[in-house]
Amino acid sequence: MHSDTFNQERRIYRTTRPAITSQKIADLFDSLGTRVFIKSEIVGLIDANREAWDIVRGAAPEEVIEDLMESLPLRQFTLRSDTYRNEFPRYSWRVPDPLEVAASIRPRKSYLCHSSALFMHKLLDQIPQVLCVNYEQSEKPKPSGGLTQEALDRAFQNKQRQSAFVFNYGEHQIAVLSGKHTDNLAVQEMTLETGGAVRVTTLERTLIDATSGRVTPVAFKAGPEAGHYSRKDQNESRTLNAS
Description:
Number of strands: 11
Helix content: 25-40%
Largest sheet: 7 strands, mixed
Number of helices: 8
Order of helices and strands: HHEHHEEHEHEHEEEEHEE
Distance between the termini: 31 Å
Number of domains: 2
């Protein structure tokens, strides 16, 4: 359906939306840097710009979103998992960076780690197929007893598990790891080439994670002259609440 016809039927705008209003909307989205949004963020932008965009008072946000998806490069997609029933609906502006998509799994609570962080710190030449995101467990009380050799032996004898929460995005998989509570220790904000900001483990923590033997299989380079090594992800998984 053509945007003008849609506008007349639904009465989204006070008048037929002129090209200058479309440009205003596009300019705003471009200026944000962010290219991946949850629905509440899109609704917030609409509510904050109703006057500037000539949106009528009674127009529902869902109607405005539908109109924007018809006329502008705003798209909706859903992150799904073969092993996890919850889905994550998202909106993208233009072509988002897969790393920003990965970071949107749990916005403001998760951060890029392991293979994702290695790429962000330029220790990988190409973006990995498996993108790792850490969503920390809640803080738990410390065990009352001390560490014993028996407990250590039992821990190493048990088969270690990989993350059960793997979501599909194009040619990439997003593995949600459930790290122990650190209160975001050694996590920093970094900027993507698209302009969006994501949270990432620092270089020092990334190297520690990458050499601890608990990383999704990925080749990384330790320096210009270094060879390539493989590490295996054996992170424990836990229930992940939907956004």
